[in-house]
Amino acid sequence: MNVFRLIGDMSHLAAIIILLIKIWRSRSCSGISGKSQLLFTAVFTCRYLDLFTNFVSIYNTTMKIFFLASSYATIYLIFMKFKATYNRNHDTFRFELLIVVSVILALLINHEFSATEILWTFSIYLEAVAILPQLFMITKTGEAESITSHYLFALGSYRGLYILNWIYRYYVEGHLDWIAVLSGIVQTGLYCDFFYLYITRVMKGKNLTLPA
Amino acid sequence: IVVADQHDEL
């Protein structure tokens, strides 16, 4: 554990909590892509199956359980409890394509051709692109509530901080997992436009509206 | 260069 990874994890945790608070307080999931949340739930489910086979630390286990539970809770809020507020007609990204491509890539490019390893690899590839339905939705509506943009900023920062963690681990521990590193770079890259808008608008107290 | 032999990250 190093400082980049810890802050990255905290940022990830903060993102999930911000999202749950936003939905719970406003009794609404308006502006949130249910498809992105489904993809994140699939990511956690496939990746954290190793809860049963591989113990790393109390910290690791606790975080995994929290991420799994919170992602299922989010899905419940969006598709059941507050489903009347879900903007289905704006959440139109063809996310099936992301799943198909991630499955194919995981079968072709992995560290080891075993069930658990392919599921892990699939989760890494899928996570890299899971935010696309959400970003697409914002592009379509042209705006996002400020709390939604805080959520996205925290979520995007997490993988960016993990890149610093991977650089640190490469030099200090000789640890390199190039599947995670390359996917993490793609994942962080997808947020670049959003980061720019967040820093130039939201941080100055303006709303996140896209230039026409 | 050591490739991760187990996944210890989240």
Word description of this protein:
The complex is a heterodimer of chains A (about 210) and B (about 10). Chain A has about 210 residues and is mainly α. Chain A has one domain (about 5-210). Helix content of chain A is about 70%, strand content about 5%. Chain A has 9 helices and 3 strands. Chain A is globular and about 45 Å long. The N and C termini of chain A lie far apart (about 45 Å). Chain B has no helices and 1 strand. The interface of A and B includes residues 47, 63, 111 and 177 of A. Chain A: Its main location: endoplasmic reticulum. Chain A: Keywords: Endoplasmic reticulum, ER-Golgi transport, Membrane, Protein transport, Receptor, Transmembrane, Transmembrane helix, Transport. Chain A: It is a multi-pass membrane protein.
Keywords:
heterodimer, A: 212 residues, mainly alpha, two-stranded antiparallel ribbon, 9 helices, 3 strands, B: 10 residues, mainly beta, 20% strand
Rg of chain B: 7 Å
Question: What is the β-strand count of chain B?
Answer: 1
Give the low-pLDDT segments of chain B: none
- Silhouette of chain A: globular
**Class computed from helices, strands and strand pairing of chain B:** mainly beta
Mean pLDDT of chain A: 96
Brief synopsis:
With 212 residues, chain A is an all-alpha fold. Chain A contains nine helices and three strands.
What does the secondary structure layout of this molecule look like, with pairings?
The complex is a heterodimer of chains A (212) and B (10).
Chain A: H1 3-26, H2 34-47, H3 58-81, H4 95-108, H5 115-129, H6 132-141, E1 143-144, H7 146-173, E2 175-176, H8 178-190, H9 192-200, E3 208-209
Antiparallel strand pairs in A: 1-3
Helix pairs in contact in A: 1-3, 1-7, 2-3, 2-5, 4-5, 5-8, 7-8
Chain B: E1 2-3
GO molecular function (chain A): ER retention sequence binding
Membrane topology (chain A): Multi-pass membrane protein
Organism (chain A): Trichoplax adhaerens (Trichoplax reptans)
